[in-house]
Amino acid sequence: MRLIQITHHDLDGYGASTVAAACATVERVVHVPRYSDVGPVFEDEIKRLGRAAEREILLMTDLGLEEQTIAGLRKFAAMNRRREDGQKHRLVVLDHHASSLDQMRRLGLEATADAARPALHRIDLGDPEIAVLIEDDICATRMTFEHRALFATHEPATDLSSLLSAVDAVDLWRKESPAFRGGLALDELFWEVVSSYVPVGHPWHDRFVSDILLAAAASLRDGANPAELERRASEIRTGVVDALLREAPDDDPTLTTRMRLARALARSDALFRPLKDGTLLSFALDSGTFQRVSDLIMDAGRAKRVVNVQRMGTLSFRSNDGTALDGARLFRGGGHRDAAGGRLQSGSAFSMADAIAQVEPVLNPEKPAGSDSPFAALKNWKG
After folding, report:
1. pTM score
2. Under DSSP, is residue 17 helix (H, G, I), strand (E, B) or coil?
3. Among 140, 180, 325, 381, which residue has the fewest nearby CB atoms (within 10 Å)?
């Protein structure tokens, strides 16, 4: 079955996606930074699954369950009831936040504690294809490993023990654990690479981050202390990038890592979506990556104007024909002719689709029906 994962945008969330990828083929991973955005993302997946012809597995990890998300659990169950036997989708929710239990009870869903594991609670939604587990004494990375039978197709070929221990120690802030200092070092390395090299949304993103986490965890397993891991970080990153760019037609190893990757990113259709006027839109790119990649895109003639929309609602326009400022002015912004910025009316965006839905009608407003007709002017004439 096709497997899609929604997970948190932190070390534990990426640890969970790294474990999942070691146990199954994960076709797509959606990383969500804010729990308040989980509901809308989940809603989009439910709508898509309702139209899907084949069975799929939706795996949700390390996401605090708030009211809209819990409503989504009930919608998923209702959607599954409408599907024929043998075509029902599977939902696996692996959470470790105590607050999720509080929210469940408040909304009338009782959790049953496991007799052998008191910290493990299950929520019964009346559908054997839905497993909602909340276990608040281990991290989501370890939960994904220990409950892998719910989605896995094979056992991991890699030793994940040091990754599990490091993430468990730092995510639950177990300072007495021997793995805690290594977990802190792993967390530092994670935040250095997660956003500024291969962006979320690019097909290489999860492989890039997971390969770095696995290599760093292997160093910890071999006895590296935090300072040694920090010194090895550049070598680990370069090794992962060399593997990604082995077949790249324009790679230049004399450039910096960001410069090398920018060339590959600029060739991708995954990070930028065309709007009706030819502007290319990206979502939640690191500002440095956006600057480098957008410049290469415009130099290659793929677009004359690009815009990057951040989750918090800010927009950055770049152009090579003097139109960046024109775009920014439509979003209460300003700046230079070829480099300007503005802000979404709503104040935030939760996905690429949401960003497009908010930007497109402002940049390219629909004309009223018949407004291009020569009779339209006569109709509105008041002479």
Report:
1. 0.85
2. helix
3. 381
